[in-house]
């Protein structure tokens, strides 16, 4: 065979091989549904229902629910749904990293072991969602939400209620997306 013929045969093969090699690095996956459900149950079990005495913080903290579709998401809306779940979890983690959770008198009465387990699942979802396409509009609203949460958490007398509101809102995001936008998540059990 002439060298040019060999090249003609090999070149397309190289191209194919590169496509096969490139694919796994772009690991874009929908979030695993059962992990999101687990995170929802753990965060819910971490503490009591939103305390009535915390209601005044609702004037400063209100989750931008307009970021989520109001009816079952179609295929083209799923990236937005997954992004809102992803960014909400990330925001809660960053808030936890940067601000001490108030415990004891006047603090929150949360089960820290459950909270840790929740963050283990959060970490896994953070990994899965790493290459979701970013959604600037939702990100803008969420970052405004988290700066409002932070402002409340940074004031000592409202800190505990700020945390309660954040937990309530993230539970709502996890729960409502699992119920209304179920088809956006990966429910496959195959390994
Ligand atoms: C869904 O999850 C299964 C089990 O973890 C995995 O094997 C599969 O690749 C995932 N599907 C998609 C589309 O990411
Ligand atoms: C959430 O926790 C409350 C108790 O704080 C419980 O009554 C409720 O059943 C829990 N919901 C879920 C979905 O686990
Ligand atoms: C998905 O739903 C949105 C809002 O209802 C609509 O504007 C869009 O055309 C729908 N897309 C598809 C692919 O059905
Ligand atoms: C954050 O607070 C400001 C000032 O109260 C308000 O205008 C804005 O809508 C809030 N952001 C969100 C996402 O709720
Ligand atoms: C809530 O917002 C109002 C008006 O923006 C502000 O005066 C107040 O200090 C805020 N409260 C907290 C707890 O951050």
Describe the structure.
α2 packs antiparallel against α6 and α5 (about 135-155) packs antiparallel against α6. The protein has helices at about 5-25, 35-45, 80-100, 110-130, 135-155, 160-180. The protein has about 190 residues and is an all-alpha fold. It is built from six helices and no strands. It has a domain at about 30-55 and about 80-100 and about 110-185: Growth Hormone, Chain: A. Helices cover about 60% and strands about 0% of the residues. About 30% of the residues are buried. The structure holds 2-acetamido-2-deoxy-beta-D-glucopyranose (NAG) (5 copies). One 2-acetamido-2-deoxy-beta-D-glucopyranose binds near residues 75, 76 and 77. InterPro entries: 4_helix_cytokine-like_core (IPR009079).
Based on Cα principal axes, name the global outline: globular
User: What is the structural class?
Assistant: mainly alpha
Helix count equals: 6
Radius of gyration: 21 Å
Stretches where pLDDT is under 50 for at least 5 consecutive residues are 13-25
- Beta fraction: under 5%
In short:
The protein has 191 residues and is an all-alpha fold. The chain has six helices and no strands. Helices cover 60% and strands 0% of the residues.
Keywords:
single chain, 191 residues, binds 2-acetamido-2-deoxy-beta-D-glucopyranose, mainly alpha, Growth Hormone, Chain: A
Topology:
Blueprint lengths: L2 H23 L7 H13 L32 H21 L13 H17 L7 H18 L5 H22 L11
Helix pairs in contact: 2-4, 2-6, 3-4, 3-5, 3-6, 5-6
Bound molecules: 2-acetamido-2-deoxy-beta-D-glucopyranose (NAG) (5 copies).
């Amino acid at each position: 065979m002439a060298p040019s013929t060999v090249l003609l045969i090999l070149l397309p093969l190289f191209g194919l091989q590169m496509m096969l090699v490139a694919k796994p690095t772009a690991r874009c996956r929908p979030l695993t549904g059962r992990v999101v459900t687990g995170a929802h149950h753990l965060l819910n079990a971490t503490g009591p229902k939103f305390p009535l005495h915390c209601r005044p913080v609702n004037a400063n903290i209100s989750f931008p629910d307009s970021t989520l579709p109001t009816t079952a998401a179609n295929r083209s809306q799923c990236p937005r749904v997954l992004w809102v779940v992803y960014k909400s979890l990330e925001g809660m983690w960053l808030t936890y990293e940067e601000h001490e959770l108030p415990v004891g008198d006047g603090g929150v009465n949360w089960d820290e072991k459950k909270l840790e387990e929740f963050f283990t699942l959060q970490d896994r979802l953070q990994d899965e969602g790493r290459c979701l396409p970013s959604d600037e509009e939702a990100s803008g609203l969420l970052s405004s939400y988290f700066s409002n949460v932070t402002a409340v958490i940074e004031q000592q007398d409202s800190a505990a209620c700020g945390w309660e509101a954040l937990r309530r809102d993230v539970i709502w995001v996890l729960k409502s997306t699992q119920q209304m936008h179920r088809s956006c998540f990966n429910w496959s059990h195959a390994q």
